Amino acid sequence: QVLAEIPRVREDLGFIPLVTPTSQIVGTQAVLNVLTGERYKTIAKETAGILKGEYGHTPVPVNAALQARVLEGGAPVTCRPADLLKPELAELEAD
Known about the structure:
By secondary structure, the chain is mostly helical.
């Protein structure tokens, strides 16, 4: 069942390439879907990160309904995620 669920999860996540760490994220979400008996009853934190755009752009758009559920009215990350971090070097040098 998990092997059949993996390509479905990958499609929902925008056909994200299956390389570490995304291969583990897709596999984990597939296992959760099978174990709970309901697709996306439980969404792993990392799966939510992909849907939010924290892992960058996906080859095709992610499942819109799933993304809306995770974003809870917020906006997806559309820039380089590290650009959202505040600069901390000056603060560290001051300490």
